[in-house]
Amino acid sequence: MLALIARFIARHEPRSDWRVHAKSAAATAASVTLIGWLSAMTGLPLLLAPLGPTALVIFGQPQSTNAQPINIFAGYFIGTTLAVLAMSVVPEPWWLATLCVGLAMLIMLVLRVTHPPAAAVPLLAYTGPVEPLVLFGVLFVACVLLVALGVVVHRLPPRGRYPLPLIQEIDQE
């Protein structure tokens, strides 16, 4: 029984230098502030809900597959596309948004571009009327800003590797 409990409470994240954590926290706070400004300018304050966790994985876990640019862009594209399609067909029932979340995760998993925060976009879209082009545009700009900031921040000391290199590049090192 203790072995079973130990499996559930074991930490799997490696220890890291406190400076890495401090840099990650500062970059996450700065990027969420930037996204907050974008949300306020566009009138879409709930954008912080999925984009905050995106910032956390970019800055706190840059080696994660979920933090890679393809996963971020494709994940948000899939979530947004499903949200827009569902709202254009049946704009009312809340349960359709929940089905879109599951479908978004299925498509992301099949395409190997999993980014869990992006699956929340259908829930965001169902909270109020959102113009499809505004939603696509704002999420695209937010993703560009987050990924670009991630590239810059991870080149500052203590340096990190973001985005991950291609598999062929790893084999050549």
Q: Determine the fraction of residues in helical runs and give it as a percent range.
A: 55-70%
Content-based structural category = mainly alpha
Helix and strand string, N-terminal first? HHHHHHHH
Total strands? 0
Can you count the helices?
Answer: 8
- The end-to-end span amounts to 44 Å
What is the CA-based Rg, rounded? 18 Å
The fraction of residues assigned to DSSP E strands is under 5%
Descriptive report:
It is a single chain. The protein starts with a helix and ends with a helix. It has 173 residues and is an all-alpha fold. It has eight helices and no strands. Helix 4 (69-89) packs antiparallel against helix 5 (94-111). It has one domain.
Brief write-up:
This protein has 173 residues and is mainly α.
Secondary-structure blueprint:
Blueprint: H1 2-9, H2 18-42, H3 48-60, H4 69-89, H5 94-111, H6 121-125, H7 132-153, H8 167-172
